[in-house]
Amino acid sequence: MTSSATMSDSTQPETITLVSNDKVSIVVERRVAKLCLLLANMFEDLDPSTDEAVPIPEVTGDVLKKVIEWCEHHKDDPLPEVNPDYRRMIADIEYWDQKFLQVDEKMFFDIIMASNYLDIKPLLDVCCKTVANMIQGKSPEEIRRTLNIPDDLPADHLS
Question: Which CATH number fits domain 15-148: 1.10.10.10, 3.30.710.10, 3.40.50.40, 3.40.1190.20?
Fold first, then answer.
């Protein structure tokens, strides 16, 4: 950041610094960070004029950067509607989100864990839809292979 954060009318800094568990600092707009309900709730308890860094102890820097990238892209999106037709919802993954989630398996599952920890329901929903698409129509054995779930049943129970 080239200069200190400017203050809004309510003397609240426009940006906040998040610090991952591996000490990576990320400066993000408060309105973007508020997509993380964990942070939105935390901001309610903080002194509004604080510019202290906020620790994110359960998320690595690489994953936090990726999650913030998603939040930046979706910062102006309206709140998602509740839709009981889940089958249609599974297919409705925006192209940008599909590309965003084309990461290695570890990063993908770390994004799921981070979106759950940070309480970013729309991101968690997109991740879950992606998993549903990955396993749709597969046998239990194929699902185990896809999700790297070990087959821990004894051999005599498999027949």
Answer: 3.30.710.10
